[in-house]
């Protein structure tokens, strides 16, 4: 698909994350550059990275703030507030120089959108990108009496933030439904899925479909997971499933690639030892280079998404699911509402997220039936086809044109919520 051509627009992107390792910010920013826009990204600074660089046409301004996967809620809030202050100062300074027309702010936190205060009052249009719904996330992070209080505060700041923004972008239908319920007008919301980004996931690198023969005894059968390693994503369930499946698949190997919550990582390492499966598990540290993910995926046999069925994970459409579907790898996944909204039962081996034996049965079944893996791949590809990145990029480019005044503001074409009933 040829990108939409337009006169250049000056766009500032703000994220409490690293760039280019944050996939959504990376692909949207490069999409805007490809369409001819001038893009500046304000993000976190990692050790060893330059505070400024230009990569693939994107100007990257990194700020000395930290993001931790562990810590208390007050510590998390303080880190958000520190970055809000730094990002506000930087965005204001850059706006004086470049006079941005658009500022695209990615949550979490939602209130990071107020870092665009000066550009907003100077005429720039502001997009709030809701990658995660903060009230539901805070609900699972807090316990006891604090849970209800944090949820109320999270809803309050979300409402202020979405009201301040000129437009809200979100990552899927479950999140859209919540935003609608909390008062965001439907005409103010655009869905842009975290579809697989073809420059990072070339179709030419797809492995061949599984053959018709049962896997050979001496052949290693690789189960894979990539992404954040935290408790709500259920890696302990997957490890227990591997232990249960090993008697049937002696050469089963599970590779886990991703940044981990330190406490949960220690727990997983201890669990691996207790289960006696150390020789069958590999933990791989992530790198800031996203192009290494495709090599990880194409050398695996089956992807696993063992998310817990809590109020947050039930709403998440995992980016890795799109990447598995695009790169033609079969999937085993928790039977969540979000996953069922995207894929049919013929496309994914759905499992009970609370039962390791359910995942173990799926692993064994797919190992023994390569023809089933091939069939699932084809069905998942069909399910994913309407939501390929080329279509999401076109949707984003259209939104930028409209908000910047280069095109009359109309509803951006997208599937309606009603069309995304849970698949059966």
TrEMBL record:
<keyword id="KW-0328">Glycosyltransferase</keyword>
<dbReference type="Pfam" id="PF00534">
    <property type="entry name" value="Glycos_transf_1"/>
</dbReference>
<feature type="domain" description="Glycosyl transferase family 1">
    <location>
        <begin position="216"/>
        <end position="380"/>
    </location>
</feature>
<dbReference type="GO" id="GO:0016757">
    <property type="term" value="F:glycosyltransferase activity"/>
</dbReference>
<protein>
    <submittedName>
        <fullName>Glycosyltransferase</fullName>
    </submittedName>
</protein>
<feature type="domain" description="Glycosyltransferase subfamily 4-like N-terminal">
    <location>
        <begin position="22"/>
        <end position="194"/>
    </location>
</feature>
<keyword id="KW-0808">Transferase</keyword>
<dbReference type="InterPro" id="IPR028098">
    <property type="entry name" value="Glyco_trans_4-like_N"/>
</dbReference>
<dbReference type="Pfam" id="PF13579">
    <property type="entry name" value="Glyco_trans_4_4"/>
</dbReference>
<dbReference type="InterPro" id="IPR001296">
    <property type="entry name" value="Glyco_trans_1"/>
</dbReference>
């Amino acid at each position: 698909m040829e990108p939409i051509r337009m006169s250049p627009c000056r766009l500032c992107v703000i994220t409490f994350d690293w760039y280019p390792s944050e996939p959504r910010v990376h692909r949207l920013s490069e999409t805007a550059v490809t369409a001819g826009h001038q893009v500046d990204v304000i993000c976190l600074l990692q050790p060893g990275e330059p505070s400024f660089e230009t990569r693939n046409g994107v100007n990257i301004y990194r700020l000395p703030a930290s993001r931790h996967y562990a810590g208390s809620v007050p510590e998390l809030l303080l880190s958000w507030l520190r970055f809000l202050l730094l990002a506000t100062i930087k965005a204001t300074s850059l706006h004086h120089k470049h006079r941005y027309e658009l500022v695209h702010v990615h949550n979490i936190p939602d209130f990071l959108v107020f870092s665009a205060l000066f550009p907003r009052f100077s005429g720039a249009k502001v997009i709030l990108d809701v990658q995660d719904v903060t009230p539901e996330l805070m609900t699972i992070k807090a316990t006891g009496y604090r849970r209800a209080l944090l949820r109320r505060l999270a809803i309050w700041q979300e409402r202020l933030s979405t009201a301040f923004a000129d437009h809200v972008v979100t990552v899927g239908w479950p999140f859209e439904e919540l935003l609608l319920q909390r008062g965001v007008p439907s005409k103010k919301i655009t869905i842009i899925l975290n579809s697989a980004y073809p420059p990072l996931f070339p179709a030419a690198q797809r492995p061949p479909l599984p053959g018709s023969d049962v896997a050979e005894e001496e052949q290693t059968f690789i189960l894979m997971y990539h992404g954040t390693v935290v408790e709500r994503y259920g890696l302990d369930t997957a490890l227990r499933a591997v232990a249960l499946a090993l008697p049937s698949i002696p050469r089963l190997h599970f590779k886990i690639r991703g940044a981990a919550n330190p406490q949960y990582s220690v727990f997983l390492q201890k669990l691996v030892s207790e289960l006696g499966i150390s020789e069958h598990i590999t933990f791989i540290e992530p790198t800031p280079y996203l192009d290494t993910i495709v090599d990880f995926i194409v050398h695996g046999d089956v992807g696993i998404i063992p998310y817990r069925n809590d109020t947050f994970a039930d709403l998440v459409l995992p980016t890795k699911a799109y990447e598995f579907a695009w790169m033609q790898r079969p999937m085993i996944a928790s039977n969540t509402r979000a996953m069922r909204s995207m894929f049919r039962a013929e496309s994914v081996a759905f499992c009970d997220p609370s039962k390791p034996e359910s995942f173990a049965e799926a692993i064994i079944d797919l190992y023994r039936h390569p023809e089933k893996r091939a069939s699932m791949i084809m069905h998942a590809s069909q399910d994913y086809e309407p939501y390929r990145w080329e279509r999401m990029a076109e949707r984003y480019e259209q939104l930028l044109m409209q908000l910047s005044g280069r095109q009359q503001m109309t509803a951006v074409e997208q599937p309606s919520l009603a069309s995304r009933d849970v698949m059966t």
